[in-house]
Amino acid sequence: MENNQQKKKAKSTSKKKSPVRKFFKILGIIILAFFVLSIVKTVLFRWVNPPITPLMVIRKVQYGGPIEYEWRDLKDISPNMVQCAVSSEDNRFLGHPGFDGAAINRAIEERKTRGRRRGASTISQQTAKNVFLWPRSSWVRKGFEVYYTFLIEQIWGKERIMEVYLNVIEMGPGIYGAEAAAQHYYHTSASHLTMRQAALITACYPDPLHRNPTKVTRYLNRRAGQIIKNSYCIGKVRFDDKTLEAARERYKNSEAKRKERKEREKERQSKRK
């Protein structure tokens, strides 16, 4: 009699737990499916060019109008455009692993001292956001951005990241990528963009919806001049193994020195207290 009662209690307990178990089972399947699909999609885009991005769809719904988007291989995009992108957006692009420690640290410090936001996103992060995610900033999106940035750094490599970046980045209302921008603003191809034209297009970031490289304001002129100056300092951007290895080594040494300085500063502050 007691055994029967114990069995009934065990059955009732298992029934009570079953909805919870089902929930976690379904959740586990969803998480596994996400990881599998995200990796498959990233591997696919290593070889297949993205036909459209979430940002293009969102802008189309928001504002209507045509989508100007023509893919060009990196060899068919002016080296000036590559130089200006690195100069303006991420001058340690070749060396960092997807995230720039110094840029993140500067953004944190500026937020503390001046109370203003400073962008710290690398070209890798911007590419991950544009290809896989939505534009509105949130902690959830940032989390996914970190994940996808890690994936493309591991699966695509720097040259493919730059190629995708220069093809999908928003460069005006309904204008995506260097080829569409070159044709729309200068009636030429991406391969023929001059340094000045490339710098003006890049100077419109991060607000390409309200800035136009053919309507040069004092700010755009000054910003383009800075980009050109930095571009000449950087020189032609190359993606061969020797150049990438040297860039990684420079970044590694730079980060080690930065962390040492930070530690020394902490020690000085603690002594003052």
Describe the structure.
This protein has 273 residues and is mainly alpha-helical. The model has no long low-confidence stretch (mean pLDDT 89). The chain is globular and about 60 Å long. It has helices at 2-47, 54-63, 79-89, 101-114, 123-132, 139-155, 158-168, 178-186, 195-203, 218-234, 241-272, and strands at 68-69, 170-172, 175-176. Strands 1-3-2 form a 3-stranded mixed beta sheet.
Notable features of this structure?
mainly alpha; 3-stranded mixed sheet; 3 strands; 3% strand; globular
In brief:
This protein has 273 residues and is mainly α. It is 68% helix and 3% strand. The protein is globular.
Layout of helices and strands:
Blueprint: H1 2-47, H2 54-63, E1 68-69, H3 79-89, H4 101-114, H5 123-132, H6 139-155, H7 158-168, E2 170-172, E3 175-176, H8 178-186, H9 195-203, H10 218-234, H11 241-272
Helix pairs in contact: 1-6, 3-9, 3-10, 5-6, 5-7, 9-10
